[in-house]
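Our platform keeps sequence and structure together, in a single record for each protein. Nothing more is needed to write down the fold, since each code stands for a local backbone conformation. An entry from our holdings is shown next, in its original layout:
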Amino acid sequence: MKRWLVGIITTLFLISGILISPGSAQAQEKTDYEALYNQGVSEGIIKQADVSLETWTEENKNQYEQVYQDGLKDGIYDKSMSYEEWIKFNNYGQPPVVDGEWEEVPQKPMVKGVYKGYTVKKGDILITNGTSSSGLLGHAAIANGNEYILDIPGKGETTRQWTTAKWMKEYDGKGWVKVYRLKNSSVANDAANWADKNYYSTKGTSKQNIFPKYGMTGSRYSKNPTYCSKIVLQAYYFGTGNKSVIQVFPSLVSVYDLPNYFTKTYKPQQVKYFK
């Protein structure tokens, strides 16, 4: 074959490779699951007693990687973010780590607002792995009253207010559900009221008149579009006056890292765990 023809064929091959491969280099990078797992263990986030390397690897391959790819496709984060960086941002796919736990004080039985021994309290933060959104692992909600739970479920949806029993039945059984609570009930009440009047009803009634779209774009000040963990953090950031409740408000709020955005004084503690 003549040199000029070989050159043309080689050039065309290289060009076609460039045309079909944008972003594929990142997709083809082999993830070192064992190294990531060990790093998560060393940071105290992955508990070996709870999840083995084999189980964690399978969860990444069968669940987490698809959420990551969906986030790339929807432009949730910059395409330069590697899978390793993304899974670390999502707390290695693990429940939030807290310094300690405390049991809720038993309250007078109520007809509503109770689920399997858990009595919802205004400002409670609920986190579950029962569902995930494009680019974000897990789901979060806030109790905007002593009976109701407020959240935004996902793409194509708006905010909703469900009873405790309805919300818990939706996610309990699909995975685990953890409930976090601030010891300062006054701060929790203020956050719950803010969430209610900014994301459900401006009048604080049962009739919804606020309908934001679901989306992960926009600043921490914007309320439309919005997403689940952002609503929770905004409530405690904007709804609690000049109190130093939140220490950091990132551009993208990780569900599984929510408790760690609070200052030490106001950091919520786990009061219930359904699995």
The first helix runs from residue 3 to 20. Residues 125 and 142 are 5 Å apart (CA to CA).
